[in-house]
Design brief:
about 20% strand, Adenylosuccinate Synthetase, Chain A, domain 1, 3 domains, 13 helices
Length: about 425
């Protein structure tokens, strides 16, 4: 069985956790390959709701081995808080594996993230303030602290001292903040060593061996395509590769292993933070989507910006990721709308543009061109086959499939774990 990748196909919050959970019963390993605790996955099981940030969603399925691989940046305090919270609710986390090569979010990177964002004022990017960007910057600047460093106090101290030379100059001389003490940072990180040690492994080797043994491995991306540092709406993006290509570099598994690549897309569009958003709504329709869809960030609690479905973005995501399937989520949120607009192209400088503009300026000024489709009023949350959906809902899905450049293989019709319609077997791709 080849490896399977799940990525967000919009600006995040599309419901990747639910899609991962849907497939997890067929999967032996679930791997988080990018990002940190700046993203959240919400999974509903029965009457229980779980909000996950660092842990892969597959940790909620018995028998699955959850892996945090090298492409992730880890806040250890958040990690153990999340583990403890799941343990308290009866969830077994003992199988968790953590890459020795993953980078650690230090306290000074959280401080720098929050301070720099405030310093930018109106030019702020809209980060979550959790130290993600500065930690990835340290990784690229080769002054980062990795998980394996925590088990060698001498190396850990050398790395923290080297990192703090420039950071303390920045904090004290530019931001007028107090300098950070090396001893305090080292002591904090060392306090996690004993509990962390049993989880740490050469995860790239373990995953390779699992695939060689015929195990099924699912790679779960954080954030989404339009937040990818290379392919998203730069600079209003995250600091990692959230596209399917990031699954390979972020895990150490060769790209030839990935044969099924699933994009998660909402039946409308949302984003959190700053940046262009052509279909964004500022009227009662936007508020309807926000309130009905409970569109508030899992990690930050911030209200999400809401808009209609954007087909050019879906096509872009299908192309960039090499998608084999879409999972369409939150179709039920549209219930009750008499008419549902879909963005099929943009107008830029008086000209029709059918694809996402490569120019940031053009995308920022793009005006959506809509086609309108009839809505439905029936409750669809109990539908479990495509044919049970109202005719207008079926037509809406078929049109989105036509416009989006990839088949829609599953449809979310409610927040419950089983509130999903499966049209195609994605693992048989």
């Amino acid at each position: 069985m080849p490896a399977v990748v799940i990525v967000g196909a919009q600006w995040g919050d599309e419901g990747k956790g639910k899609a991962t959970d849907l497939l997890a019963e067929h999967i032996d390993y679930v791997v988080k390959f990018n990002g940190g605790n700046n993203a959240g996955h919400t999974v509903v099981i029965g009457n229980e709701k779980y909000a996950l940030h660092l842990l892969p969603s597959g940790i909620l399925t018995e028998g699955v081995v959850p892996v945090i691989s090298n492409g992730v940046v880890i806040d250890l305090e958040v990690l153990f808080h999340e583990i403890d919270a799941l343990n308290a609710r009866g969830i077994d986390t003992s199988k968790l594996r953590v890459s020795a090569n993953a980078h650690v979010i230090t306290s000074y990177n959280v401080t720098l993230d929050k301070t720099a964002e405030r310093f930018l004022g109106k030019r702020a990017i809209g980060t979550t303030g959790r130290g993600i960007g500065p930690t990835y910057a340290d990784k690229i600047n080769r002054v980062g602290v990795r998980i394996q460093d925590i088990f060698d106090e001498s190396i850990l101290r050398q790395k923290v001292e080297a990192a703090l030379v420039n950071k303390n100059n920045l904090l004290t001389k530019v931001y007028n903040r107090a300098a950070i003490k090396t001893d305090a940072v080292v002591a904090e990180l060392l306090s996690f060593a004993d509990r962390l040690r049993p989880m740490v492994a050469d995860t790239a080797l373990e995953l390779h061996q699992a695939l060689e043994a015929g195990k099924t491995v699912l790679f779960e991306g954080g954030q989404a395509t339009m937040l990818d540092v290379d392919h998203g709406t730069y600079p209003f993006v995250t600091s990692s590769n959230a596209t399917a290509g990031g699954a390979s570099t972020g895990s150490g598994v060769g790209p030839g292993e990935f044969k099924t690549i699933i994009g998660i897309v909402k039946a409308y569009t949302t984003r959190v933070g700053s940046g262009p958003f052509p279909t964004e709504l500022f009227d009662e329709n936007g508020e309807f989507l926000r309130s009905t869809g409970h569109e508030y960030g899992t990690t930050t609690g911030r209200p999400r910006r809401c808009g209609w479905y954007d087909a050019p973005i879906a096509r872009y995501s299908a192309r960039i990721n090499g998608l084999t399937d879409f999972v369409l989520t939150k179709l039920d949120v549209l219930t009750g709308l008499k008419e549902i607009p879909v963005c099929v192209a943009y107008e830029v400088d008086g000209k029709r543009v059918n694809e996402v503009p490569v120019s940031q300026s053009d995308f920022h000024h793009a005006t959506p061109i809509y086609e309108n489709f009839p809505g439905w009023s029936e409750d669809i949350s109990t539908c479990r086959t495509f044919e049970e959906l109202p005719a207008t809902a079926q037509s809406y899905i078929l049109k989105l499939e036509e416009l989006s450049g990839c088949r829609i293989s599953a449809i979310g019709v409610g927040p419950a774990r089983d509130a999903i319609i499966v049209r195609h077997d994605m693992l048989a791709s």
